[in-house]
């Protein structure tokens, strides 16, 4: 008797198609428990801080909100310590328009550790020798959603990654 062993390697097309059909979009509410927890891990007592935005035309805030996005602040309001996250769907070439301006303003392309982002640009201003920087920010394009994080207490990407990941975890999937 002769035994035959047949083995094959293939890709499960159902899994590939399912992964490609997942659509990500910006959340519709600022009350994101994972984001609050990520801020609280770095700034004890952080919570969502409701804000009555009145953005000026031409700002990132204006462009995000007028593209169906939201802007949410988290931290300790009375201490004026915290940060803001913008979420907006990348429609009508929004990212490409903003990227040109960010690069002209001195932001640099970066690769975020442990994240498979489409693109990321970082802005860093202020003195790194100080305990608190004036502004630290990053713009991330992740699966068709623009996420911007700005915070007064962050010093580098490694410190920001838990908050960035919580912002991504807050995206709506369909």
Summarize the structure.
Helices cover 28% and strands 27% of the residues.
Overview of this structure, please?
- The protein has 174 residues and is an alpha+beta fold.
- The protein has one domain (24-173): Protein Transport Mog1p, Chain A (3-Layer(aba) Sandwich).
- It contains 5 helices and 9 strands, in the order αβαβαββαββββαβ.
- The protein has a 7-stranded antiparallel sheet, sandwiched between helices.
- A hairpin with a 2-residue loop joins strand 7 and strand 8 (145-151).
- Helix 2 packs antiparallel against helix 5 (157-169).
- The longest helix has 13 residues, at 157-169.
- It is globular, with a radius of gyration of 20 Å.
- The relative contact order is 0.19.
- Residues 1-17 and 125-133 have low confidence and may be disordered.
């Amino acid at each position: 008797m002769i035994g035959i062993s047949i083995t094959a390697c293939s890709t499960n097309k159902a899994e590939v198609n399912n992964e490609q059909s997942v659509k990500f979009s910006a959340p519709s509410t600022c009350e994101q428990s994972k984001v609050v927890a990520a801020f609280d891990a770095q700034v004890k007592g952080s919570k969502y801080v409701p804000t009555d935005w009145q953005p000026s035309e031409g700002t990132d805030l204006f462009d995000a909100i007028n593209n169906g996005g939201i802007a949410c602040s988290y931290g300790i309001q009375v201490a004026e310590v915290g940060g803001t996250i913008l979420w907006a769907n990348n429609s009508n070439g929004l990212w490409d328009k903003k990227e040109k301006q960010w690069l002209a303003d001195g932001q640099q392309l970066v690769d975020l550790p442990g994240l498979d982002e489409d693109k990321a640009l970082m802005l860093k201003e202020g003195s790194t020798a100080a305990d608190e920087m004036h502004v630290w920010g990053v713009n991330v394009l992740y699966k068709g959603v623009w996420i911007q994080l700005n915070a007064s207490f962050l010093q580098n990407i490694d410190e920001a990654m838990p908050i960035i990941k919580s912002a991504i975890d807050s995206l709506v999937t369909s």
